[in-house]
Structures are given as structure tokens and as C-alpha cells.
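Sorry, any thoughts here?
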Amino acid sequence: MTQLKTLVAPGLLLLLGLGLAGGTAWAQANSGNGPVEVAADDLVYDPEAGVSILVGNASVAQDGAVLRAPRIRVTYLRGTGATNGDIDKVYTEGETFYVTATEKIRGDRAVYDAPANTVQFFGNVVAVQGKSVLKGSQLTLNTKTRASTMRGMDGRVRAVIFPNQGQGSNSGSAKK
């Protein structure tokens, strides 16, 4: 697969900020300029309704990022000022994964709101960057400012954060 046009770039709440990649239909989201690969068992496009639906092993990929879910629905902006292919919202249904070379986010579903520059993961959210892990019930990220909020499961957010885990660092070798 190529890479995603829908969800995430570097960060992990404190360390994770989500930034969407962009391409023709997804272009307003971020700086991704590569081709967008869309795959699914079935694809339905309804130009009158301004909706694309990917069903069955659905994935969208761009520039090294992949968004996967059983079902992905994309709605497009309509009316004055909207150009063909401008995304309004992207909805995933079922267990959703967003994967890049450095981050992995999992949730029961996700919603990307292009005009608001936000992406939200809902239900059993797990965000991983390197060894650091963040868990909660809802993760909301602003794709422009990288500001984020995690809501806790059972009232608490859970995190294990490994500071100073740069590329190629040997963080576990300091102890002897």
C-alpha cells in the first residue's frame, strides 16, 4: 500500500500529535503530496450525495501512512466555495488502525473533520510511539496545532512514557 490521506503524523499526546496527510480528495488535511492508494472489497461513489464508501478490508494509504477499517465513509463539501474532491468528513466503522513508520493508533472507530482540522478516535483507544503507550476512551487531535486531549477509560487516562527515545538511542542500556 502507498500511504494514508486521512490520519496522523508524529506525536504521542504529550509526544503524539496527529496530522493528516493530503492528496486530491484529502489534500486540505496536511502536507502529503504522494499518490493516494484506496483499497476495499467494494467501493461505492455517489456524486449526487457527495459520498464515497469503502467496504470490506478498507484502507487509504499515502506517504507512508495507512488508515484501515472494515468500512470507511468519506463525505465531500458541497455548495459555494467547495471544489470537487474537498473532503468534509471521514468516518470509519469497526476496529480502526492508523499506522505510520513511527506511530500506531487503534480505536473502535474514528472521525476526521477536515473543516475543523480535528480527528477523533473513539472506544478503547491505544496510541503507541516507540515504546510509549497511551490508553483512553477518546483521543481528539487538532491536525494543525497538534493540540490533543485524551479522555480516560473508567475516568482515568493511562500512559507509559519513555523519555529520550530518539532514533537509534539505546535507552535500555544505561542501567547495568
User: Anything to note?
Assistant: The first strand starts at residue 37 and ends at 39.
